[in-house]
Design a protein that fits this description.
Protein name: Geranylgeranyl reductase family protein
CATH class of one domain: Alpha Beta
InterPro entries: FAD-bd, FAD/NAD-bd_sf, Geranylgeranyl_Rdtase_fam, Geranylgeranyl_reductase
Largest sheet: 8 strands, mixed
GO molecular function: FAD binding; oxidoreductase activity, acting on the CH-CH group of donors, NAD or NADP as acceptor
CATH topology of one domain: FAD/NAD(P)-binding domain
Number of strands: 21
Organism: Nocardioides cavernae
CATH architecture of one domain: 3-Layer(bba) Sandwich
Strand content: 25-35%
Helix content: 25-40%
CATH superfamily of one domain: FAD/NAD(P)-binding domain
Mean pLDDT: 93
Shape: globular
Distance between the termini: 41 Å
Number of helices: 11
Low-confidence stretches: none
Structural class: alpha+beta
Bound molecules: flavin-adenine dinucleotide
């Protein structure tokens, strides 16, 4: 394949965020190159859960039938403190169903959607640097593009650069991105395991997560059914630089699996266990320049209360393509868009998540919360940020009010 030397829009990273950006930009008639360091299909450490926000974006991309052919779930079964609650997805302005698809398959499919929309995809292309003209990025340097000379750098010039290179965002760092770990982040792991509950129409979360010594850990364990004889089993905990996570995630997943294995008909080993850090709640600065923007995990667009980020990746991919296609520009305009869409909800969510890094708080509030269907339904809606600007009900208004108050008090608000 001929390597393009220039393009309108260069997207670096072909996870959900990059592929969505590439698909929407190509559909808007722009010339798009979608480059990723990996060769697809590739794995990504994730719970594989698609909540209603993600379903909404997948529908927009035309993928509803594809998703429904995988698995459909109707809500969350919350377990803990001797209680089990069934909490249906609330619906409202967002879809009332969820799904789960292993990332190896989901990301490959989304990338194919981008290609079918007109983007040129490059595998094995690791972005290593940029050439600037003033504040603008004129070109990105890649390694691995020339198979005969893998160490050689090859440049692709661009009018617009979308940085979707994930949690560590190596290209974002080159552009000045800074991740603030004094704000809450997650340490989480996932594995796959055979289960008799693989067709369960509910996803499950265990809010009472205990380590090998039986001590309560802040965070939660999950079982997300994949409809193919297996489930995604994982566990995550919250941390800050002041209160680092003191628990080893892989043994925690095993302890969790041992504790709930009987209830979920689990059998065999935990396969492919992996873990990762997760920046959350817009806890990064320098998210844009005049012709470049960070999206998805690179911009810490992850919900601090449940760790979901596929939906925000898909959304920010669409928004950035709209910015570029409309000529609205990036830079401060892009930062404002992130603040407008996510600032208030991320601010209040990360404040609450910061409080929940203390196991004492979980021990005190968990049992009371789990005794109330009403409280947990509210918590599911707030924790999942299943509140849209269109929602006018009381719970939505309280959530938005709390977000505004929280942001006004933030020493460093999201994306700054
Ligand atoms: C344990 C765990 C469980 C999670 N569970 C869920 C869940 O159930 N639901 C949910 O919604 N979210 C979940 N998340 C979060 C979710 O995985 C991320 O928010 C999501 O993957 C973000 O997508 P992205 O496109 O921004 O980044 P990624 O999916 O990470 O994609 C980034 C891409 O950039 C490429 N790349 C990196 N560096 C370079 C480079 N220098 N040059 C070129 N390419 C590069 C990588 O190869 C990769 O393909 C979980 C995260 C973890 C860690």
């Amino acid at each position: 394949m001929t390597i393009p030397t220039s393009t309108d829009v260069l997207v670096v990273g072909a996870g959900p965020a990059g592929s969505a950006a590439a698909a929407w930009a190509a559909r808007a008639g722009l010339d798009v190159v979608l480059a990723d360091a990996a060769t697809f299909p590739r794995d990504k450490t994730c719970g594989d859960g698609l909540t209603p926000r993600a379903i909404g974006e997948m529908q927009r991309l035309g993928l509803e039938d594809w998703l429904r052919a995988h698995t459909v779930n109707q809500g969350l079964r919350a377990h803990g403190f001797d209680q089990t609650l069934l909490l249906p997805w609330p619906g409202g302005s967002l879809p009332d169903w969820g799904s789960a698809v292993a990332r190896t398959e989901l990301d490959d499919h989304l990338r194919t959607v981008a290609i079918k929309s007109g983007a040129t995809a490059l595998d094995g292309a690791r972005a290593v640097g940029v050439r600037r003209e003033g504040e603008r990025v004129a070109a990105v340097a890649f390694r691995g593009l020339d198979a005969a000379r893998p160490g050689e750098e090859v440049e692709i010039a661009c009018r617009w650069l979308v940085v979707a290179d994930g949690v560590r965002s190596p290209l974002g760092k080159v552009l000045g991105r800074e991740w603030h770990r004094d704000t809450v982040y997650a340490v989480a792991g996932r594995s796959y395991v055979d289960s008799e509950m693989s067709d369960d129409p509910w996803i499950s979360s265990h809010l009472e997560l205990r380590d090998e010594q039986g001590e309560l850990v802040s965070g939660y364990g999950w079982i997300f059914p994949l409809g193919n004889g297996t489930v995604n089993l994982g566990a995550g905990t919250l941390a800050t630089s002041r209160r680092p996570a003191e628990v080893a995630i892989k043994p925690l997943m095993q302890t969790y699996a041992d504790a709930i294995g009987g209830d979920f008909g689990l059998s065999g080993e935990l396969r492919m266990p992996t873990s990762a850090l997760l920046p959350m709640g817009g806890a990064v600065s320098n998210v844009a320049g005049p012709n470049w923007a960070l999206i998805g995990d690179a911009a810490a667009c992850v919900n601090p209360l449940n760790g979901e980020g596929i939906d925000y990746g898909l959304e920010t991919g669409r928004f950035v393509a709209e910015h570029i296609a409309s000529g609205a520009g990036l830079g401060e305009a892009w930062r404002s868009t992130l603040v407008e869409h996510y600032g208030e909800s991320f601010s209040i969510a990360r404040r609450l998540a910061g409080i929940a890094t203390q196991p004492k708080v979980v021990a005190a509030l968990g049992p009371a919360g789990m005794r109330s269907d009403w409280l947990m339904t509210l918590a599911l809606r707030w924790m999942g940020n299943l509140v849209d600007d269109a929602d006018r009900d009381r719970a939505a208004r309280v959530w938005r009010w709390a977000g505004r108050r929280s942001m006004a008090r933030d020493a460093r608000p999201p994306f700054s």
